[in-house]
Amino acid sequence: MKKLVLINPHPMGNVGEENVSVLNQMPVNLGYLKVLTPGNWQVDIIDETQEYAIDENTGDITFGGADLVGITSVSYQADRAYKIATACRKRGIPVIMGGIHATSNPDEAAKYVDSVVIREGITLWSTIIDDFEKGCLRKRYDGGLTPMEIYCNLSPDRKFLKDKYKYRYSGIITTAGCPFACEFCSVPQFQGQKYRERPIDDILNEFESIKGQYRGLILTDENFYGHSKKSNERVRTLFKSMVERGIYQNWFGFTSLNIYKDDETLEYMAKSGCVGVLIGIESIEEESLKSMNKNVNLKISVENYYEAIANIRKHGLAVWGTMVFGNDADTSGTFERVADFILDSHIDIMTCGILCPFINTPLYHRLNRENRLFRTHFPEDWKYYTSHHLTYVLKKLTLDEMIEGFQYLYDRIFATEVLRKRFHRAKDELNNNMNAAMFAFRVNLDWQNVYQHLIQNLKDLQNSGDYEAALKYYLSPSSSVIF
Known about the structure:
This protein is an alpha/beta fold. It is built from 19 helices and 14 strands. The strands form three sheets. It has a six-stranded parallel β-sheet, sandwiched between helices. A six-stranded parallel β-sheet has the order 7-10-11-12-13-14. It is globular, with a radius of gyration of 22 Å. The N and C termini lie far apart (61 Å). The model is unreliable at 13-20 (pLDDT under 50).
């Protein structure tokens, strides 16, 4: 029997940084590949948020051996993925790599692995395994965009993952793709701009099959609500059917702010067990939203953010907003305005990070054209490409102002006493939904540590002198940059 090992890598020293513990969920994508692998294979999955795939002292693999290794990776994991691949190939083990980074940068990935899978590998996984067994593994595969019908009667091996790592949360797919073209977003590269929807009955059956097995489920879609009236009606039917079939399950999902006017859908979401929604607010500065091409928020307008948040919360759903700093329109005063907005709007969670130029996004190409990127010693520097590190020269903010701004936000929003007050207020305001209030409180407590880590990263950058050197270069006469 042949052995396949599937690996979700994680950068050393950053464990916990990208995986907030309250939402530390199983890698469902690898669970799908496991069930799609022929029965004559033994399949193991290693999640490096839980254990390491290579020994840091010897550089050797920790799992004994395999006939084939598959690695999935986003950009901040890429250098770690390459180290794992190198250790495997040193032992004579062929390596396949897929995921967002391999899709965005396949030529780089090809230097470290035997085969690169672009876009979604689930569509041709059986072909890849068959090619390997025949000794004709190709250098590159393009899985294209997965038709949602493929998921019908197909469930990932959650039991294997739960038994191995004791996950409290799992994910479920209901849609894929995004028709928007936000400047910073890599989703269109990987999942395409065609919005694809999974059949409702199939989703309901999967919900029912895992009901009560996890503390919570996460709808892993970029926007489960969709982008059209037809999509909105479909998701309303989904949640209504959950209520009618008695599938009550604590769940959480990602959507856009345009859901706020749909009271009927919000009502069924709450009745089906939803504890909250994550919404990409990104900025309260219209100039920044325009530069990011965040048209859905511009259409609603910043002035209506308060009404939108209030209407979602009145249904008992916690609102988790995300916001990024470092936009070209941001100034030192932006942080104070954001803090005021968070407290005045009573938003339950606001996680703020640094705008990140993910590889091959319009933002990456723009900053590269402007010669503003530093930390470009790849693949080592890929570990910095998260929302917790600064990788480019700021326009209106100084690094000192960025550090002071994040510290100001922490003091006003994430001090423990502030979080306690926000929790007690949420208990009263979220329509007696204690699950939602507790969910928000746990996330906020976890993000206390994340923010402290982010601030320390900026201080480390400041102390290194690297930012000052980059700034001097980009403002020097030899640079063609015009600010």
